[in-house]
Automatic annotation (TrEMBL):
Residues 1-262 form the Pyruvate carboxyltransferase domain. GO terms for biological process: ketone body biosynthetic process; L-leucine catabolic process. It comes from Niastella yeongjuensis. Coiled coil: none annotated. Pfam families: HMGL-like (PF00682). PANTHER family: HYDROXYMETHYLGLUTARYL-COA LYASE (PTHR42738). Keywords: Lyase, Metal-binding. One of its GO terms (molecular function) is hydroxymethylglutaryl-CoA lyase activity. Gene3D superfamilies: Aldolase class I. This is Hydroxymethylglutaryl-CoA lyase. Belongs to the HMG-CoA lyase family. InterPro entries: Aldolase_TIM, HMGL, PYR_CT.
Amino acid sequence: MQGWKTFIPTEKKIEYLQSLLQVGFLTLDFGSFVSAKAIPQLADTAEVLKGLKSNPVETTTKLLAIVANVRGAEEAAGFDEISYLGFPFSVSETFQQRNTNSSIEQSLERVKEIQRICEQTNKQLVIYISMGFGNPYGDPYSAAIVFDWVNRIAGLGVNIISLADTVGLATPDQVTDITSYVINKLPHHEIGVHLHSSEANRQAKIEAAWQAGCRRFDGALKGIGGCPMANDDLVGNIDTEWLISYLEQYEKVPGINKTALGKSLTLANDIFTL
């Protein structure tokens, strides 16, 4: 939702999220506690959460909220309903400044403090390695740089790390090499991929991640998305309904309620209309 230009009414968000909570996903990235000026679409996250709490649905799905600084983490951690805090950590200096208004080193200090908050409040921190497969800004990039930052973050006690193809630059070979290396080096961590892609090359990237041993995949219904801070609105998220169908050729995707998924798609078609 974050890059959608037209404000989605709070009631619509609640209805949509309630439907998604019944599909059977492990985690639902439902909102963010960041600057309302930066991401006005999600300025009502606390109200959305209040609505979800007041009209609960039966679900095993856990909620994840994105934060960009310690203040946001403290606010998000105050809600018992939230299980995960997500922080975008970029290996591109330019993008880290654009996305969180901080340098990479400053962001590492934020990660340390947010991890401390998570440990104190029984939350789990999910770190997204933004620009994990390259960047368009000319900043230094190599697989070795990615591995170095991943290792430093893992050393802080962060157990869930998602490799993000923020602007859709990754090649299948990159996805294979980087993902398999991280999974093999951190066998006791949960390693995922957050891939932005067009329909033209999404299958090759997902297959590469699967063959590398990845079993945590992010998606969005209808592929809606892209990062507004990266000016990649046309490079959307991986289409969730397509992703489920594709992965089921390898093994059954557990717990997915196809009827609830269909209802969520109907709502998505109503909300995300140009």
